[in-house]
Amino acid sequence: MNILFTLCGRAGSKGVKGKNAREFCGKPLVWYSMAAIALYKEKYAGNDTISVVLNTDSEPLIDLVQQVSSLEVGILHRDESLAGDKVAKVSVILDCLNRAEQMYGIKYDMIVDLDITSPLRTVEDVRSAIERKAQRPEVDVVCSVTHARRNPYFNMVKEENGFFCKAIPSNFTTRQEAPVFYDMNASIYAYSPDALRNKEHTTFFNSNCDAVVMFDTGILDIDSEEDYDLMQVIAQFLWKNKEGYMDVYQKVENWK
């Protein structure tokens, strides 16, 4: 199988300034996603062909990625048309696919995007998503999710006509009775190349998707300064107490 790993990061950010090129617990944030890829190549790639590309308009981010000599990463300078904050990320992933196939002369069977701002994942999480997508070639994407802490049938509300009411009206008296919901945790996405090329990007996740469930406590997408601070506290706990997270951290530590 030919797998393309993508790392995507804009230079601009409204929530956390320059977040993609920041440090996380003393090391470049992007290195944690790179370490997960490196570990997957070492442990599970076998005879698969693995390529990695960075799609960005950030020179500092390019510099950080190129400091790691042990993981070859192709640099794709992002076109201005894909650099806005309203551009669907799926469109950027398609750009990665088309340009990587030209760069390497390879037809890819799967595209796996690891979000730079979700650094706390294990190599087993990555393997799980890839294996799930390989088992279900008919789905357009396998994304990572966590169990939702709130449920729109039970304890989520919306404002309507000056009042607050349940997001979805129901008679459930306990959360356990309500249908199960999950949060997309913005960590791992395993895409079908055909779907990227043929499906509407703005509604891509509205249908024909599958998911793998990740451990929820440590998984926040860094989208504010508060997220950034809290994630570093959670990271220290996970590295000490949860199997798998330390492997990624140790890989990053070795990249001096």
Arithmetic mean pLDDT: 92
Rg over C-alpha atoms, rounded to the nearest angstrom? 19 Å
Low-confidence stretches: none
The main sheet orders its strands as 5-4-1-6-10-7-11
Q: What's the count of strands?
A: 11
Helix and strand sequence: EEEHEHEHEHEEEEHEHH
Shape: globular
**Sheet/helix structural class:** alpha/beta
Helicity level: 25-40%
Describe this structure in words.
The protein has 256 residues and is an alpha/beta fold. It is built from 7 helices and 11 strands. It has helices spanning 29-43, 59-66, 89-104, 123-135, 193-198, 225-241, 245-254, and strands spanning 2-9, 23-24, 27-28, 49-56, 74-77, 110-114, 141-147, 157-160, 163-166, 182-191, 209-213. The strands form 3 sheets. It has a 7-stranded mixed sheet, sandwiched between helices. α6 crosses α7 (245-254). The longest helix is centred in the C-terminal third of the chain and has 17 residues, at 225-241. The mean pLDDT is 92.
